[in-house]
Amino acid sequence: MLVYCAEMNYNISQDELQFIKGKTGIADIEMIKAKVDSVSDAEALDVIDDFKKTYLTSPDKEEKVRKDLEAFLKTEGKHSQLENVLVHILKRLV
Question: SS3 of 27, please?
Fold first, then answer.
């Protein structure tokens, strides 16, 4: 979800990249970026929905994801209006 949000303006900043690595523990974000780039927005939302069903099995886990999405928007730099809107939508989906 975080990579999908960051990719909305076609440029993941270093601060966004470090934030994502810190939250996910995934060192090879390029692999995730390639996957995100290879699917349509509708397919990406299906992946996010599957993630929700599999991993967000309690209100506490859902709240943690919402807080992570909010924290993403507090990383350094200017976030596009599209990133802001997408974070809002994703928070509602989870």
Answer: coil
